[in-house]
Design brief:
Elements lengths: L4 H22 L3 H5 L7 H7 L2 H19 L2 H19 L1
Helix pairs in contact: 1-3, 1-4
């Protein structure tokens, strides 16, 4: 399967929406967070209606093709090393 730039762009946009949603919730100050004022923010509500579902759908679709191309053991090894090494290094 030829790599689709559309899917890469869509996955990037959904990842940015995940980050933006968390920034609105946690990055708007302690008073904003403690009063849960983010629940009344229109942009926050809009993003949270679909962002995780869209991100997981696109990621799952792309992961399916990774599983078809590589063995499960190879995928697990690659995913573990690509996530555990940075976690251990930066922790």
């Amino acid at each position: 399967m030829k790599r689709s730039q559309y899917l890469d762009v869509l996955k990037g946009i959904t990842a940015l929406l995940v980050v933006l949603g968390h920034c609105i919730q946690y990055g708007s100050g302690a008073e904003f967070l403690s009063s849960e004022a983010y629940f009344t923010d229109g942009l926050f509500k809009l993003i949270y209606t679909f962002h995780m579902a869209a991100f997981m759908t696109v990621s799952g679709y792309l992961f399916y093709y990774s599983v078809k191309k590589h063995s499960v053991g190879e995928l697990l090894k690659r995913r573990l090393t690509s996530t555990l090494i940075p976690i251990v290094f930066f922790a």
